[in-house]
Structure formats: structure tokens, C-alpha cells
Design brief:
By secondary structure, the protein is mainly alpha-helical. It is about 75% helix and about 0% strand. It is built from 3 helices and no strands. The chain has helices at about 5-20, 25-35, 40-70.
Length: about 80
């Protein structure tokens, strides 16, 4: 496998993870799920086991697609 493709997937996963955690998606979950202190455990489980892996997987797919689309095109520079 190409190292640039792997690095694009890693950087895409990191970028999506950071952007996803900046967005207030968890606040939406907290308003819908958490009614008392016992429900906070469910919220943490959803964030750690569902939301974060989703961000990482989508980010790596987007990074690999960006590599395939943008970085593998041949340059039409001067000959």
C-alpha cells in the first residue's frame, strides 16, 4: 500500500475527529438522552463507542478519497 495514501487516511481521520468534536453534536445527544445523572453513562458510551469511531472511519475514507481524487492526478505543467 502506498504510504501517501495511508498518511492521507490518517490525516483525514484526525481532521474529521477534531472537527467532529468541535461541532456541538454531543449537546444534541445530551438534550435528548440525559434526564438524570444515571443517563450520563449512556451518553458517554454513545460518544466513545459510536460517535468517535464514526468520525475516525468517515475521516479516513474522506482522506483516502481526497488522495485518490486530488493527489494522484498528473500535472499538466510545462513540458
Amino acid at each position: 500500500m502506498n504510504l501517501k495514501k495511508v498518511l492521507s487516511g490518517i490525516f483525514g481521520a484526525i481532521f474529521m475527529f477534531v472537527i467532529g468534536n468541535i461541532l456541538p453534536i454531543t449537546n444534541l445527544y445530551s438534550h435528548l438522552i440525559v434526564d438524570n445523572h444515571d443517563d450520563e453513562d449512556i451518553l458517554v458510551a454513545i460518544v466513545v463507542l459510536v460517535e468517535w469511531p464514526t468520525f475516525i472511519i468517515l475521516g479516513s475514507i474522506i482522506g483516502i478519497l481526497a488522495y485518490s481524487y486530488c493527489l494522484t492526478k498528473l500535472s499538466k505543467g510545462r513540458s
